[in-house]
Amino acid sequence: MRDDNERQTCTGQTANGERCTAWPVRGREQCAGHLGLGKLDPKAASLRSAEVRAERKQARLAKREMSYSDHVAAAIERNADAIVQAFLDAGLKSGDWRALEALVTRHLGKPVERVEVETEGVDLRSLSDVELQALKRKLLMQRSA
Ligand SMILES: [Zn+2]
Q1: Cα separations (Å) of 55 from 3, 51, 68, 87, 124?
Q2: How far apart are CA 52 and CA 35, in angstroms?
Q3: Are 33 and 58 contained in the same domain?
Q4: Dist CA 76 CA 107 (whole Å)
Q5: 3-class secondary-structure state, position 81
Q6: Least buried of 5, 59, 135, 141, by fewest C-beta within 10 Å?
Q7: pLDDT tens-digit profile, the chain (145 residues)
Q8: Cα of 41 from ligand 1 centre, angstroms
């Protein structure tokens, strides 16, 4: 069987004079509509053909657009129950608290660590690059002291 991409469309013309886009009957050069076979009219056959090609193109695009992370996300989605159960088993049955922590933080997010810097009421945005460099050096010295 030949590939659709190598096949020529019908040699007939549509009502507005354009080339018919329907597939020809096997072994013939025209579509069933232009050959007068059955009850197909060329316009309907052409429209149906265009629909089929549009559907195939959509399917190809959808498949191509699945990135690696889409595939991983889909696999995780499919196995969500088993993954959660594995974390719970490791934590509750095997005593691995890290498994429970991982499960909780993946779901709820990690607590935010906040670093407070004493700037004595100075708006850091008002400082020049030189002043910021000096402040940075001072803070680094305080930390290592
Ligand atoms: Zn035709």
Answers
A1: 17, 6, 24, 41, 57
A2: 21
A3: yes
A4: 14
A5: helix
A6: 5
A7: 445 556 789 999 988 899 999 999 999 999 888 888 876 677 777 888 899 999 999 888 887 777 888 888 889 999 999 999 999 999 999 999 998 888 888 878 777 766 666 666 777 778 788 888 887 888 888 777 6
A8: 9
Query: What is the C-alpha separation between 112 and 63, in angstroms, rounded?
Result: 38
Question: What's the gap in Å between 137 CA and the centre of ligand 1?
Answer: 80
Both 87 and 53 in a single domain?
Answer: no
Is residue 114 included in any domain, yes or no? Answer: no
Tokens for 126? Answer: 């008002």
Distance 9 CA to ligand 1 centre (A): 8
Task: Using alpha carbons, select from 110, 87, 109, 113 the residue that is nearest to residue 100.
Answer: 87
**pTM of the entire predicted model:** 0.34
Reduce the DSSP state of residue 17 to 3 states and report it: coil
Q: Ligand 1 centroid vs 12 CA: distance in angstroms?
A: 5
Q: Is residue 43 part of a domain?
A: yes
Residue 59, domain member (yes or no): yes
